[in-house]
Amino acid sequence: MAAPKGNKYNKGNHDTGRPSKFKSSYTEAIIKFFDIEPYKKEIMEKSKEYFKDGQLKKESEKIKHMPNKMPTLYRFARKIGVEYSTVWRWAEKGEWDGKDKDGKETTIDKNFKDFCNSYKAAKEIQKEFLITIGLAGAAPAPFAIFTAKNVTDMRDKQEQEVTHKGSIIYLPPKK
Prior knowledge:
Blueprint: H1 26-34, E1 39-50, E2 56-67, H2 73-80, H3 84-93, E3 98-99, E4 105-106, H4 110-136, H5 141-151, E5 162-164, E6 167-170
Antiparallel strand pairs: 1-2, 3-4, 5-6
């Protein structure tokens, strides 16, 4: 059955498909969501020392760094009530500029470009979050390494000499 006349979602009309749930306020909201303290200090033990006469000599606390929940795009999507894949597409739309599936020239919507730039900034904040947690000892080192490799652009550096019949073909540049 064909769509009724005047249906604005009908193929062939100017705007096809469901309207986007995108709001320009998400551009600032994603930065605010990702920009949190990496860890909180938790008091594990309190102690007091006294002089022989009963007066307080010294108070001390043992503190442990406890990591906060890492901000992720999935958690951000849940917070704003949108599917993860939708938020991912918004970030990707800001990167793409060229031709649509029909071969027509198209340009990026400024809102999506701004959101894409905010998403990139949020990823850098997330990377800083992981580095801070790792250096503070708030997460086990192997976990911090694994997460950083899989969530950010950080990788182990490997340099290899390429040889053929004993002669060097490629030697990595020294920095």
